[in-house]
Amino acid sequence: MNDDKMSNNNIEAEYMDIAARNAWPIIYQKIGRECQTYTYTCIEAKKPKNKPLNRYRDVNPYDHSRVILKRSDIDYINANLVKMDRANRKYILTQGPLAFTVAHFWLMVWEQNSRAILMLNKIIEKNEKKCYWYWPHGIGEEEKFVLVDVQLTIEQISEEDCSYYTTRVFRIHDMESGESREVVQFHYTTWPDFGVPSSPVAFLEFLKKVRSSGALNPDVGPAVVHCSAGIGRSGTFCLVDSCLVIIEKEGIENVNIQQILLEMRKDRMGLIQTPDQLRFSYQAIIEGAKRFNPNFKEDPKMEESIYSVVAEEADEPEEEAPPPPPPRAESLTRAPARPLPNIPTSASLGNLNYNNCSAEESSSSDGEPPTPPARECSSPSSSADEDDDDDSGSINESGGNADTLRRRRTRELADRIAVMKKRAREAEQWHALKRSLYKPLTITFGFILAGIVIYTYVKH
């Protein structure tokens, strides 16, 4: 990663050079090849008892940096602690919770002393479930979650809609110690899966809001960052934030974006999932270096255009079904099957949006937000029947039949799980029947045996 062009330490010139050569897929593949030399293991993630706790088969936490649960029968969760010492930053990158890992997720937030959850995905995207609804469905005591398994309660105390993201404040109460703590969820609602935000400027405003909350400060626990797999959008956020901190501390001439990404990938596999996300990271870092500079003066005429991009995107109709996404991890070293989409113009990037692509940007609108699932009387983690059957594994594509193959495998997986659940229910019913018949049969057999003994005695 020490190319001559990169040694100039001029991010803007590097960006222009890559864009002029349309070399984003090549750079992205090069990063992937370097990561293939890593020798880190994922032994815990691949144990039979832990495999069902992974949303995708090919996105696993490294053993050396995985988050370990302390107060649970199971110490495993698909999460890694990602450190960037130069930026004095720590993040916990994790997958979107499954139905039966909600309690594990909140226990991790509590044990790690995290003060914020950064949720970068919707619950439903392109008609696919990307994450379980893991927070209370309303504000107040009557709507709170009681997680008996981990002795925690989760109560939502406020919610604020900020156009393209939402903030929610939760109170976590530890039933063992009696302590309580508030945690803020920053929910970015307009960032499409395998895509990029509607504009670098809107994303930077979101980052500034997160920073101003103090959630990323070194005196509190690491913020929990998740999307669906916890590597694409999550990795983009952490890369941009870390690079901007290093720029503030050391100057832009000392920042090598690709090298920093490689360093972060040593803690969690596959951060940044597409060449488009890598390109967006460059744009956001260049833009952020200007906007976060104390001497930066924003043109007030630009303010309306910045947020109109987000508003227009939110009002767009649902796109036709896109081609199926590549596998989460295997795609890290493959070039995309189609040209990169354009990234919308931002306030100060100007000609940095230069590219040779003509494809339109993917819409970030996935229709109306989903209705929350029915409120559960006990811990959401106790209901295995509500598992995300369609999220249990990633999908391999090949040629024009990829979509059909993906759907067939999803149906087969759902059918197998349904059969397993049916057999489990039948076995439980049979055991219950045996238990219910045991006592009366024992009594009847006792009477018969007593009758035989009396009859034998009287006869003789």
Please provide a written account of the structure:
This protein has ten helices and eleven strands. With 460 residues, the protein is an alpha/beta fold. The chain folds into two domains: 4-387, Alpha-Beta Complex (Protein-Tyrosine Phosphatase, Chain A); 404-460. The strands form two sheets. The protein has a nine-stranded mixed beta sheet, sandwiched between helices. A two-stranded antiparallel ribbon has the order 5-6. Helix 5 packs across helix 8. It is elongated. It starts with a helix and ends with a helix. Residues 201-279 form the Tyrosine specific protein phosphatases domain. InterPro entries: NR_tyrosine_phosphatase, Prot-tyrosine_phosphatase-like, PTP_cat, Ptpn1/Ptpn2, Tyr_Pase_AS, Tyr_Pase_cat, Tyr_Pase_dom. Residues 343-366 have a biased composition (Polar residues). One of its GO terms (cellular component) is cytoplasm.
Strand and helix layout:
Blueprint lengths: L3 H4 L3 H10 L3 H12 L30 E3 L7 E9 L4 E6 L7 H10 L4 E4 L4 E2 L2 E2 L15 E3 L4 E10 L3 E10 L5 E9 L11 H13 L10 E4 L6 H18 L6 H8 L10 H17 L10 H14 L86 H58 L1
Parallel strand pairs: 3-11, 4-10, 4-11
Antiparallel strand pairs: 1-2, 2-3, 5-6, 7-8, 8-9, 9-10
Helix pairs in contact: 3-8, 5-8, 6-8
* CATH level-4 homologous superfamily of the largest domain: Protein tyrosine phosphatase superfamily
Domains counted in the coordinates: how many?
Answer: 2
CATH topology of the largest domain: Protein-Tyrosine Phosphatase, Chain A
Q: Shape, please?
A: elongated
Q: What's the CATH architecture of the largest domain?
A: Alpha-Beta Complex
Number of strands: 11
- Strand order of the main beta sheet, please? 1-2-3-11-4-10-9-8-7
Roughly how many Å apart are the termini?
Answer: 102 Å
Mean pLDDT: 79
Instruction: Summarize the main sheet.
Output: 9 strands, mixed
C-alpha-based Rg, rounded = 26 Å
In the CATH scheme, the class of the largest domain would be Alpha Beta
Structural class: alpha/beta
Strand percentage lies at 5-15%
DSSP helix fraction? 25-40%
Q: Enumerate how many helices there are, as a single number.
A: 10
Uncertain parts: 1-8, 300-326, 330-351, 354-371, 373-400
Q: What pattern of helices and strands is seen along the backbone?
A: HHHEEEHEEEEEEEHEHHHHH
Region (Disordered): 311-407
Enzyme class: hydrolase
Domain Tyrosine specific protein phosphatases: 201-279
Biased composition (Acidic residues): 312-321
